[in-house]
Amino acid sequence: MDIITPLLNIVLGIILLTMGKKLYWLLVAVVGFLIGLALATQYIRLDPPWLIYFVALGAGIIGAVLGIFLQRFAISLVGFIVGGYGALYLAGLFGMKEVPFNWMAFIIGGIVGLILVASVFDWALYILSAWAGATLVTRTLTEGVGLNETLGLVLFFVLFVVGMIIQAGIYREKPKPVPVEETPVEQPAKKKE
After folding, report:
1. Would you say 67 and 28 are in contact if contact means Cβ atoms under 8 Å apart?
2. CB atoms inside a 10 Å sphere around CB 107
3. Span between the terminal Cα atoms of the chain, in Å
4. How far is CA 111 from CA 16, 47, 84, 116, in A?
């Protein structure tokens, strides 16, 4: 069993759960990396196998550059992909694994993710990064380690809520201090001698 990919998924998932909004470019890079990794492992036969990670890293770098220079577009695209993939994963945990349900879940989840990004950008970053992190960790544990799917579903929602709480607590805007106006204090007049 390849130990690098599950370990990488868990580490990236935890980073997204806790710091996804602050590192939004990392969210886009991780999604790009994972798409590159999935496509490279399914459609490209590279020898030696480490070249697959090189292709995935290239996709992640492209995602990070898009995230920095085309922020709204990149986050909207990530919103669609993360929403769709998360809905597809949850549909599978609920037992809906047939082909038409897969596509419907992905499209509906993608549209919800896109609408979320368009309407409340900052909160969308909290939600999407927590959703992506929870999906990465839970999927790795259910498919890679063999965690029961029911426990995986519970773990998903626990991680999602914890990720939201952590990010909302860490990144909430702190009230700006109100400047205190100084009033000139009159000096007592000196006595003339």
Report:
1. yes
2. 15
3. 97
4. 21, 38, 8, 8
Dihedrals phi, psi of 3, to nearest 5 degrees: -90, -20
CA-wise closest residue to 43 among 56, 31, 61? 56
Closest CA to 171 of 28, 12, 8, 22: 22
Q: If we measure between CA atoms, which residue out of 117, 147, 148 comes closest to residue 131?
A: 117
Between CA 141 and CA 149, with CA 143 as vertex, the angle to 5 degrees is: 75
- The structure tokens 């994972």 sit at 34
Q: What would the pLDDT profile of 134-181 be if each residue is shown by its tens digit?
A: 988 998 998 888 888 889 889 999 999 999 888 888 766 666 666 666
Residue 79 near residue 117 (C-beta atoms within 8 A): yes
Sign of CA dihedral 19, 24, 25, 30: positive
CB distance 156 to 135 below 8 Å: yes
Q: Which two tokens stand for residue 16?
A: 């997204």
**Amino acid at residue number 72:** R
Residues 6 or more apart in contact with residue 61 via CB below 8 angstroms: 29, 32
Q: Which two tokens stand for residue 159?
A: 């991680």
Confidence at residue 1, expressed as pLDDT on a 0 to 100 scale = 43
